[in-house]
Q: What sequence folds into this?
C-alpha cells in the first residue's frame, strides 16, 4: 500500500500551525482544517505571553502568514471534518467547507461591508464583552483576511426574504458577496492525521460561591485578557463591568474549577503563570493598582518562570496569598466584590485555628480551569480516539511515544492531549512532524 | 528658530523595522487610526540597519525630522539589533548637537506589531514637535 | 579584539556553498541594469485607496518620473486581472523594474514577486509601495494630502527601484547526516527517529553505556516500570540500527562549519574519528545538584540525594520506617532561582512507592509549593495524599533543621499551615535537589558557538516559539540540556529536535532569501567590527591576497543589517537595502 505523503491537521491554533509548518517544510502536503474563519486560536486572544511578555499576536502573526502562504499548505478555514475512514498510510477524510457567503477570490478584506452591516451579535473573540457584526473578520490580523457572514445571525440569510438587508452586498466594491454560496464537501486522502484542537475555558457559573454571572465585577481570566489587550473592547483600559471605573485593587482567584473534586480534578498547568502575567500587566498599565493572587501552589515550573514570579513580587508588588477563597459576596454600595478566605499561611501561631478573613477589592478575576475544546469529543469519536477521564486524548505509551494516540497514524499535540503551555505545545507539534515523517517514510 | 508658520508642512522620515514598527504602522492603518500625513515610512528589516549616516544626510538635506522605530527591547527578531540601534542613536543624538542640529529632530522609540494606537500617538506627537521646531534649514549654529 | 579563527574546512565549505539557483522562469536575464525601465502599477483597491487618493493623478505623476517606462492603475492589483495586466505589461513594455503601489508588503509581496518571475523578471527587481495602510487608511479626511503623500511614496519607490539589482537565491546543500551529542533518552530518541527517516546518525556518548541519567533511576514515572527495562529496547534499537554509529566513552572535540556542512572530530582518548554532518542536536542532559553543606550532607550517611535514593531502592534495601523528603533544596533560592520542574514528581513517585510497599511507613514531604502540574502528576499527588503521605509546607526564611550527630534522627520543621514547629522522626532524609547544567556545557557552548542562559542551561532561539532551535541554523536542542525535563518531555523535545534537523536534510538544501549582507573587499579594512556585531555568527575574517577581509556566510546571514550600519568604511552592504538604495529614497523625499 502506497503511503500518502499528505497529512491532515485538525485545528489551527499555535500547535496546529506549527505542526503544519514543520510538515510542509519537510515536504508533506498539509491540509489544515480550522473550524473558525481564521487560524490563530487562543494565542490570538492573548495580549502578552509569559514569561517574556512578548506581544502575543506579534509573535503569532508571522507564523500564521508563513503557514498560510506555504506552498505545501492547503488552508481550509471555516471547515469541519465530517468523516474519517481508512488506516495509517491511507485515510480518506471528508471535510465540510461551510459557506462564508463571501467569494474568497474576490474579497480583499477591506471591511466596507462590516461598516454597513446593521446586525450586531456578541463577539466570540472578545468573549462576549462587545459585539461584532453579522459579516465580520474575527480579529484584525485574521488569516485569511476574508470576511465571513454568520448565517445564523445575518438578517437576509435567516429570513431569505427578497429585499431584506443585503447592505453588505451593496457596499462591496469587489462584488465578493455571494448569498448563493453553498457548502462544499471535499474528500482528502492523507497518510496521517494530527489533532490539535486546543482548549475551552471552563464556565465558572456552577461555582455559585464565586458569583460569576451574578456579581458584575467577577470576571474570568480570558475576559480579563481581552479587557487588558490594546486590541480588545476597551482598548486596553481595565474598566470594570459595573461602572466602567478602573479598580484600585484586583484579586485573582486560582484553581477555579481545577484541582477540585466537584469539577475538574487536574491542574490546568498554565494559570499560575497566566495570573502572574495579568497582574504584571495590570501594574504596568496602572502603577498604583494593588494586585492579589489567591493560590494553592504557585506552579512556575518552566524556563524563566520562577524568575517571573519573583519579578512580579519584587518589581510589581504583586501579593501572593495562600488560600482558596470560600466565597465572594458584594458590597452593594460600591459594587466591590468581597473575597472571603482563610489565611492559611501562618507565621506565628498561638491559636491554631485559621484566621478567616475577607478582603474588599475592585475587581475579581477567576482563573478558570481549561478543558478540552467543545468540538473535541465529536472529532475523537470520528477518529476512533480514546479519551481519558478528563476528556483529553489518551496517549497509550506516553513515555516513549508522547504524541501517538491509540489509533495508528493519528497523532495529537497541544492542549487537547494534556494541559500545557505554548512552548510545550509547540514542541509537541514539531514532535508530531517527526513521527509523521517516520511513519510515512516507510519504516516505523 | 522660526515659529511654526501656518501651512508649514514638515517633511518627516520614519525608518520602521519589518517585524515590529512597520507592522504596528500597518495595524494603525487597518484600524483606520487617523494621523497627520507629513511622514513617510522607509522599511528596513531591523532598526539596526539604520545608519547614522542616513539620519545626518536626511537632516542635512532638508528633512525636518527623522524617526527610528524598532521592536521593544527584548523582542528584536534578530535578537540584539534593537540594542545596537539604541546605543548608536543615543550616541548620535549627542553628536547632533555638535553638528548644530537640534537633537529633538531625531526621535527613537519602540513600537510592537500590535501597537497601532501607540504608532498613531507617537507620530502625531512628533509631527507636532517638529512643527513647533520649525523648518530645518540646516545646522543651526 | 579576538582574532577570528578561520579553518581550512570552512573555506572549502564556503566554496562549495555556492551552487546558484536562478530564481525565475522564462528568460531570467531580463535585468539590464544600465537602463532601468520601471513599470508603476497603482492600485485602487476598490474604494480603499481610490476613495481617498486620486489614483489616476498618481499614475500621471509616475509617468513624469525619469526612468518610468510605463504606468497604469488597477482596480485590484492582487486579483487575477491585476496580476495578468502586470505580467503582460512587463513583456510588452520590456520592463526591468516593477513597482506596485497598493497595500502592505507583509501580505502580498510574495504574490507580486511570483508574478514578476512568471513574466521572466528576476523577483528582486520588484519594489512595493504602501499607499493603503500607510496612506489612504490613515488620512481618510485629507485626500489632497493623501494624494501628495502617495506621489511622494511612489517617487521614493522609483528612486530605490533604479538601484535594485537582480539577485540569485543561494542554495546551500545539506549533507544528509546528523550528529547527536548525548546518548540519554533524549539523544537516543532523536537519533532513532532520524535514522528511521533515512539519515545517517553519529551518536556520541561520554560514558561507557547509553542511557544517561536514567541509568541511575529505579522506577520511571508514571508507569513504575523498571528504568533499565524501559531503556533496554531503546538502547537495543539504537545499537542495532544500521544507520546509527555510536561512539561510547567519547567526546566531541571540535565542530566547525555551518548548517549543511559541519566537520566533526570525536575522540575516545585513543583514537579520533572525523566525519561530516549537516545538522547537530545537543542532548547532553544535566547532572544532579549535590547539596554539599546542606542539612548535614554528605557527613550524615542517611541524608541522601534523589539519585542516591534511587540507588538504594534499586538495590532493594529494607525500607526505612520514617522518611522525610525536603523539597527545593538548592532550588528556588537566590543563587539558583529556577525550579527543577520534575523533582516534585520524582519525590511523589518514590513516596508512593515506599507507601505502597509498606503502608506503615511514615513519609513526609516538606515543600514550598508542590509542582504537580498538569493532569497526571496532579493525580499522583492526590494518590500520595490518599496513601497517607504527609505534606508539610515550609518557608524559605525558616528552613527545616536536620537533627542528629552521627546520623540524622529527626527533622524539625515549622509547619506554615498550622503554625507550629513539628519534630518528625527520620530514618532517612532525602534532600530533593534540582538538576544543574553539565560541567562541560561551557566548553560545548564555545565549541558550537551557541549561548547559554543565566542559569547555565543552553539558550534556545526564542523561549516561546522556537524552543528547540538555537539562533544558529542547523543546531538544535532537547532534553535537560535545555532545562530539566521529565522523560515524557525529553522525548517530546527529542522528536521536535529531530523534526527540525530532518527538515533541511530532507530538502537537501537551504535556500537563503537574497537580503543578505556582503562585503566589498576593496573597501574592507579587516577591522572585525562586523564579526562582533553579528547576532548569528555569520561573518568571519579571512586572509586573502589583499590581507584580512570580512566574509559573510550567506547561509547563516539573516539579513538584519547590523553589520552594515556598524561598518566604518561602507564596505559592508545589504542586498535590497544598500546605502545607495536608501539614500536615493531620502533624496527623493527631499526633492519635490
A:
Amino acid at each position: 500500500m502506497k503511503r500518502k505523503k499528505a497529512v491532515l491537521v485538525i485545528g489551527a491554533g499555535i500547535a496546529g500551525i506549527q505542526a503544519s509548518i514543520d510538515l510542509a517544510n519537510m515536504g508533506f502536503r498539509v491540509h489544515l482544517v480550522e473550524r473558525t474563519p481564521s487560524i490563530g486560536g487562543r494565542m490570538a486572544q492573548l495580549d502578552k505571553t509569559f514569561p517574556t511578555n512578548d506581544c502575543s499576536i506579534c509573535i503569532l502573526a508571522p507564523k500564521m502568514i508563513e503557514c498560510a502562504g506555504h506552498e505545501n499548505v492547503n488552508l481550509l478555514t471555516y471547515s469541519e471534518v465530517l468523516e474519517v475512514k481508512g488506516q495509517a498510510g491511507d485515510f480518506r477524510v471528508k471535510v465540510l467547507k461551510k459557506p462564508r457567503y463571501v467569494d474568497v477570490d474576490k474579497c480583499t478584506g477591506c471591511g466596507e461591508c462590516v461598516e454597513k452591516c446593521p446586525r450586531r451579535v456578541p463577539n466570540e473573540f472578545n468573549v462576549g464583552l462587545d459585539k461584532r457584526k453579522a459579516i465580520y473578520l474575527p480579529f484584525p490580523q485574521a488569516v485569511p483576511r476574508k470576511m465571513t457572514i454568520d448565517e445564523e445571525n445575518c438578517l437576509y440569510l435567516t429570513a431569505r426574504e427578497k429585499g431584506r438587508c443585503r447592505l453588505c452586498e451593496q457596499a462591496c466594491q469587489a462584488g465578493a458577496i455571494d448569498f448563493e454560496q453553498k457548502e462544499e464537501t471535499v474528500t482528502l486522502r492523507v497518510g496521517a492525521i494530527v489533532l490539535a484542537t486546543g482548549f475551552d475555558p471552563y464556565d465558572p457559573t456552577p461555582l455559585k460561591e464565586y458569583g460569576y454571572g451574578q456579581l458584575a465585577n467577577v470576571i474570568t481570566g480570558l475576559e480579563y485578557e481581552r479587557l487588558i489587550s490594546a486590541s480588545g473592547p476597551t482598548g486596553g483600559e481595565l474598566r470594570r463591568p459595573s461602572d466602567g471605573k478602573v479598580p484600585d485593587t484586583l484579586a485573582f482567584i486560582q484553581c477555579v474549577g481545577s484541582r477540585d473534586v466537584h469539577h475538574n480534578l487536574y491542574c490546568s498547568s498554565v494559570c499560575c503563570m497566566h495570573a502572574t502575567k495579568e497582574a504584571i500587566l495590570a501594574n504596568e498599565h496602572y502603577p498604583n493598582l494593588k494586585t492579589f493572587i489567591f493560590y494553592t501552589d504557585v506552579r512556575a515550573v518552566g524556563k524563566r518562570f520562577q524568575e517571573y514570579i519573583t519579578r512580579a513580587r519584587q518589581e510589581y508588588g504583586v501579593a501572593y496569598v495562600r488560600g482558596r477563597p470560600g466565597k465572594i459576596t458584594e458590597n452593594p454600595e460600591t459594587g466591590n466584590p468581597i473575597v472571603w478566605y482563610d489565611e492559611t499561611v501562618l507565621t506565628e501561631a498561638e491559636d491554631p485555628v485559621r484566621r478567616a478573613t475577607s478582603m474588599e477589592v475592585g475587581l475579581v478575576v477567576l482563573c478558570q480551569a481549561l478543558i478540552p475544546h467543545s468540538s473535541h469529543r465529536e472529532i475523537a469519536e470520528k477518529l476512533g480516539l480514546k479519551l481519558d477521564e478528563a476528556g483529553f486524548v489518551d496517549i497509550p505509551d506516553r513515555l516513549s511515544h508522547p504524541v501517538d494516540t491509540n489509533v495508528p497514524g493519528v497523532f495529537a499535540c497541544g492542549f487537547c492531549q494534556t494541559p500545557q503551555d505554548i512552548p510545550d505545545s509547540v514542541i509537541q507539534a514539531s514532535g508530531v512532524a517527526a513521527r509523521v515523517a517516520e511513519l510515512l517514510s516507510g519504516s516505523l | 528658530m522660526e515659529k511654526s508658520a501656518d501651512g508649514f508642512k514638515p517633511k518627516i522620515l520614519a525608518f520602521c523595522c519589518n517585524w515590529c514598527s512597520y507592522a504596528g504602522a500597518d495595524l494603525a492603518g487597518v484600524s483606520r487610526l487617523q494621523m497627520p500625513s507629513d511622514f513617510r515610512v522607509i522599511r528596513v528589516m531591523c532598526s539596526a540597519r539604520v545608519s547614522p549616516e542616513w539620519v545626518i544626510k536626511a537632516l542635512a538635506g532638508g528633512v525636518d525630522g527623522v524617526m527610528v522605530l524598532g521592536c521593544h527591547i527584548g523582542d528584536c527578531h534578530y535578537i540584539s539589533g534593537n540594542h545596537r540601534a539604541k546605543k548608536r542613536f543615543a550616541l548620535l543624538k549627542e553628536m547632533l548637537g555638535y553638528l548644530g542640529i537640534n537633537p529633538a529632530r531625531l526621535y527613537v522609540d519602540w513600537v510592537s506589531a500590535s501597537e497601532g494606537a501607540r504608532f498613531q500617538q507617537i507620530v502625531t506627537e512628533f509631527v507636532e514637535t517638529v512643527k513647533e521646531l520649525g523648518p530645518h534649514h540646516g545646522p543651526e549654529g | 579584539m579576538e582574532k577570528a579563527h578561520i579553518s581550512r574546512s570552512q573555506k572549502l565549505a564556503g566554496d562549495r556553498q555556492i551552487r546558484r539557483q536562478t530564481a525565475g522562469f522564462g528568460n531570467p536575464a531580463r535585468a539590464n541594469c544600465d537602463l532601468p525601465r520601471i513599470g508603476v502599477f497603482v492600485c485602487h483597491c476598490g474604494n480603499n485607496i481610490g476613495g481617498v487618493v486620486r489614483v489616476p493623478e498618481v499614475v500621471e505623476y509616475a509617468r513624469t518620473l525619469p526612468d518610468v517606462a510605463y504606468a497604469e492603475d488597477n482596480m485590484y492589483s492582487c486579483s487575477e486581472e491585476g496580476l495578468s495586466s502586470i505580467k503582460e505589461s512587463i513583456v510588452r513594455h520590456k520592463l526591468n523594474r516593477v513597482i506596485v503601489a497598493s497595500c502592505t508588503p507583509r501580505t502580498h509581496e510574495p504574490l507580486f514577486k511570483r508574478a514578476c518571475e512568471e513574466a521572466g523578471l528576476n523577483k528582486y527587481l520588484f519594489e512595493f509601495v504602501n499607499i493603503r495602510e500607510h496612506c489612504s487608511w490613515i488620512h481618510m479626511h485629507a485626500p489632497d494630502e493623501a494624494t501628495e503623500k502617495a506621489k511622494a511614496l511612489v517617487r521614493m519607490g522609483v528612486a530605490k527601484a533604479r538601484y535594485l539589482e537582480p539577485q540569485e537565491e543561494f542554495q546551500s546543500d545539506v549533507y544528509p547526516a546528523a550528529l547527536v551529542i548525548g546518548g540519554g533518552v533524549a539523544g537516543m530518541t532523536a537519533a532513532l527517529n532520524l535514522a528511521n527517516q533515512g539519515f545517517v546518525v553519529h551518536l556520541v556518548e561520554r560514558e561507557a553505556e547509553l542511557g544517561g541519567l536514567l541509568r541511575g533511576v529505579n522506577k520511571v514515572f508514571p508507569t513504575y516500570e523498571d528504568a533499565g527495562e524501559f531503556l533496554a529496547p531503546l538502547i537495543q534499537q539504537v545499537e542495532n540500527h544500521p544507520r546509527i554509529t555510536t561512539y561510547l566513552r567519547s567526546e566531541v572535540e571540535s565542530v566547525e562549519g555551518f548548517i549543511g556542512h559541519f566537520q566533526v572530530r570525536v575522540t575516545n582518548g585513543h583514537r579520533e574519528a572525523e566525519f561530516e554532518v549537516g545538522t547537530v542536536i545537543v542532548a547532553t542532559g544535566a547532572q544532579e545538584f549535590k547539596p554539599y553543606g546542606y542539612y548535614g550532607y554528605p557527613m550524615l550517611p542517611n541524608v541522601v540525594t534523589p539519585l542516591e535514593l534511587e540507588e538504594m531502592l534499586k538495590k532493594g534495601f529494607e525500607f526505612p520506617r520514617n522518611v522525610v523528603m525536603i523539597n527545593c533544596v538548592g532550588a528556588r533560592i537566590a543563587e539558583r532561582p529556577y525550579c527543577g520542574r520534575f523533582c516534585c514528581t520524582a519525590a511523589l513517585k518514590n513516596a508512593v512507592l515506599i507507601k505502597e510497599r509498606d503502608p506503615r511507613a511514615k513519609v513526609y514531604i516538606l515543600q514550598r509549593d508542590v509542582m504537580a502540574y498538569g493532569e497526571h502528576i496532579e493525580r499522583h499527588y492526590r494518590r500520595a495524599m490518599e496513601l497517607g503521605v504527609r505534606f508539610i509546607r515550609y518557608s524559605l526564611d525558616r528552613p527545616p533543621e536536620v537533627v542528629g550527630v552521627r546520623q540524622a534522627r529527626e527533622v524539625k520543621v515549622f509547619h506554615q499551615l498550622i503554625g507550629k514547629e513539628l519534630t518528625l522522626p527520620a530514618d532517612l532524609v532525602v534532600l530533593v535537589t534540582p538538576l544543574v547544567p553539565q560541567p562541560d556545557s561551557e566548553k560545548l557552548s564555545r565549541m558550537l558557538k551557541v549561548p547559554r542562559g543565566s542559569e547555565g542551561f543552553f539558550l534556545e532561539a526564542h523561549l516561546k516559539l522556537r524552543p528547540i532551535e538555537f539562533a544558529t541554523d542547523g543546531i538544535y536542542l532537547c532534553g535537560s540540556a535545555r532545562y530539566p525535563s521529565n522523560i515524557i518531555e525529553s522525548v517530546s523535545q527529542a522528536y521536535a529536535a529531530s523534526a527540525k534537523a530532518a527538515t533541511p536534510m530532507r530538502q537537501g538544501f537551504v535556500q537563503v532569501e537574497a537580503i543578505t549582507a556582503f562585503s566589498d573587499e576593496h573597501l574592507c579594512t579587516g577591522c572585525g567590527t562586523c564579526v562582533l556585531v553579528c547576532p548569528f555568527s555569520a561573518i568571519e575574517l579571512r586572509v586573502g591576497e589583499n590581507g584580512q577581509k570580512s566574509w559573510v556566510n550567506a547561509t547563516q546571514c539573516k539579513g538584519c543589517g547590523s553589520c552594515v550600519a556598524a561598518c566604518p568604511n561602507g564596505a559592508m552592504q545589504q542586498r535590497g537595502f544598500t546605502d545607495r538604495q536608501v539614500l536615493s529614497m531620502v533624496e527623493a523625499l527631499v526633492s519635490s
Summary: The beta strands of chain B are 12-17, 39-44, 65-70, 106-110.
